[in-house]
Amino acid sequence: MANRFCVNLTHAKDNQDKATVAFVLANAALGSGKETLVFLSVEGVRLAQKGYADDIREEGFAPLRELMENFAKAGGTIYVCSPCFKKRKLDENNLVGGAAIVGGAKLVEFLSDGSPCLSY
User: d(Cα 2, Cα 14) in Å, to the nearest integer?
Assistant: First the structure.
């Protein structure tokens, strides 16, 4: 059984519920001892920018900024799709903690041991 867990997140402010739940599950996986990766792609890459998630608050959940900060502080990894990021002309010098801009090969490498991956 893989000791890794991946959450692929393609949403940000366009679907705040999915963005929030993705980080709730990522924190749960990390808390249960799994090496956990959140892969931000499509619109999700916007969450990699400092300050972007500050006003995202879904009822019944902690604020998204707090969920993301807790994830990074606990050792979670955030990979940001390089082509998606560049397409949106975002600032590489303004990344949230734990985030790294990568190509698809890094995601494939992480998943190559059969790690489960949820998509939001």
Answer: 32
Strands (E) across the chain are located at: 4-9, 35-40, 77-81, 99-102, 117-119
Query: Cα Rg for the chain, rounded, in angstroms?
Result: 13
Q: Could you give the 3-state DSSP secondary structure of residue 93?
A: coil
Euclidean distance between CA atoms 72 and 67, whole angstroms: 9
* C-beta atoms surrounding 104 within 10 Å: 13
Over residues 39-91, the pLDDT tens digits come to 999 999 999 999 999 999 999 999 999 999 999 999 999 999 999 999 999 99
Q: What sign does the dihedral 110-72-99-66 (CA atoms) show?
A: positive
Q: For residue 24, how far is the Cα from the chain centroid?
A: 10
Ordered domains of the chain (ranges, CATH): 4-119 (3.40.1260.10)
Residue 1 has pLDDT above 70, yes or no: no
CA distance from start to end of the chain: 23
- Contact between 12 and 52 under an 8 Å Cβ cutoff? The reply is yes
